[in-house]
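User: Some background: our group keeps a shared notebook of sequences we're curious about, and every so often someone picks one and asks for a predicted structure to add to the entry. Today it's my turn. The entry only has the sequence so far, pasted here. Could you supply the structure so I can complete it?
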Amino acid sequence: MGCFTVLLLAAAACCAAPAILFSSASERPAVPGVVPPSVEGIPGRMLAAYSTGAAQIGTHVPACKGMRWQILAGIARIESGHASGKQISPAGDITPPITGPRLDGSGIGGNTTPFPDTDNGLWDGDTEFERAVGPFQFLPETFRAYGKDGNGDGTVSPHNADDAAASAAVYLCGKGRDLNDRSQLRAAIYVYNHSNAYVEDVLSGIDQYDALGITPTVPTGNASTVVAAALGQQGVPYSWGGGGPNGPSRGFCCSPGGQDGSKIVGFDCSGLTQYAYAQAGIQLPRTAAAQAGAGRRIPASAGVGALLPGDLVFYGYDPDADSTIHHVGIYLGNGQMINAPRPGKPVRIDPVTAMPDYAGGARLL
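Assistant: Of course. Here's the predicted structure to add to the notebook entry:
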């Protein structure tokens, strides 16, 4: 039945939001608690990618400590100016692709050692020599070894912001560095580029971002699994009645606004929460109203401050009546959630205040 309840089938729009608060990918806030809503000079979609990459490191390199958005931003600031001048889609795809100078040993770009092609031009468009690719400027051979699917779309590409950020996090962490240790952080950056001047430039950027006073609060355990799973679906289309524990799927017809979900592979709001929680081994009911009965209920009267990352966030016409709940998201921290908002809008990060009828949350983790 999607996000709507049987009792309100005629009146409740599945995951309907009152107004569009962010009109483009660059205006979307990034994961709060891990990154601030905005940082001057960094597109919002790139901030979201840095935060996603940092949040996923526990899955890829469990022994790594201290990975945070500031480190990834410090690298990308030098390598591509945070994908400056490029278009970044809601799914994180960067166009036109970012490619560095041809590494043919000519001296252009400081390269005096030729690097023969290893990807048959797949990522760099050059079938004779290598070029660094993407916002983190990986050599194709290196990306092939460390590349991760940061947005969960089944494709790993250095030209996708989420994939590139997750891959850079893995590369910097090595076998399990403690990046809270300045000497280990310095060593990680040096491995990325064997230049002391480069290391100092990157550290300068990291220090500037650290000085913003944002303390990372990346969730751990099952909460981390749930949040990372949901973040990995950013950009997946909304499908009325779509999605579930196994991932995005076709829904059915039709939403109050007329969307035929049977023609779209994606998620509605409760389909997304079902999927994210399934990755932690937790089975949720299908509808938003039914999910309100799972776990420990957090009343709306307790305020948003009572929520923790990974909690379900509900919206209903009567905050004291679970039967009126029509929308659900997953709380990220600092007043933000990830959700499948409504037909025509993909899975994205929104403030909890994006909808006026906050009805509290539920804690299952």
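Suggested note for the entry: The longest helix spans residues 196-210. The two ends are 25 Å apart (CA to CA).
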